[in-house]
Amino acid sequence: MIDARIPLACLALAFPLSKGMAGSGSGNANDWIYLRNSDLKVGIIKSSGAGIGYFSRAGSTRNLLNHYDRGRLIQQSYYGDVDGSKWVDQEWRYNPVQGGDYEGKSPPMPEITKDRQSLYARSIPLHWASGEKLSECLMEQWISLEGNVMHVRYVFTYNGAKAHAPRHQELPAVFLDASLDRLVTYDREAPWMNNRVTDLAPGPTNEYIKMTENWVAYVNRKGEGIGVYVPHVTEATCYRFRGKTGGDLNCSYVAPIRTFALTPGLRYSYHAYFTIGTVEEIRERFLEIHSEISTGKRPDES
Fold it and tell me: How does residue 242 score in pLDDT terms, banded at 50, 70 and 90?
């Protein structure tokens, strides 16, 4: 039986191929907007609520993210109570998703403002299972490139009348290329003391892990990949999917998680940081950000 706390991304294993699922709109060049600097390149998909679908080193054409469907991006996703909806045949729950629904339906086109150094998007999500436009919800994201780090600020506003029970929330959901198959984090006491990291090999079923330094990374066999750091968040959920057909269906997934309820008037804001490099480089960059937050040089929003 599937644990009702598990986020939608984790349940993709149960229904890997469903009607219209492979419909991210990513094949249309006009559907993309990019930010670049001398270190990084990031791309959002307009028809997927401005969800992040591309992330690479500057000058590289190798995208390290997976954007197979509307659910597979770096994006916001939140959970409430069981509401009679169904994801294929699975009973589902209230679930606003930035990118769209499981059948490939796009949310309303987001409002996007871009300059040379940053990108802002304001969007209305869809219900993942029912495809309903959730006008009581608002998702905002600010993306900026700070040298070799991508900084994303997320804000979720819920003005619905119903108070939902607390659930695990993805902060954010992160889908990566399947070649990044080794998960690395620090999960013990005495964080930020340069103690040995923990190597994990997530399987096809959902797992929960600790990350006491607030970061987690997926890397390849050379030890290079993507790290995500979310201040104050000490848990994550993860899995790896390997289908028989291969290709873009395969992916690595991770999401830092925190438990809270969607209640009327909620405005939830947080920062997430992403970087590409070796485990040592990833950890060093996140330590610098952690130190800046600790000394008040960087915003501390949870």
Answer: confident
**Boundaries of domain holding 187:** 8-294
Counted domains in the chain: 1
Q: Is there a domain that residue 300 lies in?
A: no
Question: What residues are paired with 37 via a beta bridge?
Answer: none
Give the pTM: 0.93
Give 116-129 pLDDT, tens digit per residue. 889 999 999 999 99
Beta strands in 5-87 (DSSP E): 32-36, 40-45, 51-57, 74-77, 82-87
Report the C-alpha gap between 125 and 110 in whole angstroms.
9
- Residue 95 domain-assigned? yes
Task: Extract long-range pairs of 212-216: CB within 8 Å, 24+ residues apart.
Answer: 212/186, 212/187, 212/188, 213/185, 213/186, 213/283, 213/286, 213/290, 214/256, 214/286, 214/290, 215/185, 215/186, 215/282, 215/283, 215/286, 216/183, 216/184, 216/185, 216/254, 216/256
d(CA 162, CA 180): 40
DSSP state of 70: T
Main-chain dihedrals φ then ψ at residue 194, nearest 5 degrees? 60, 30
Domain CATH code at residue 226: 2.70.98.10
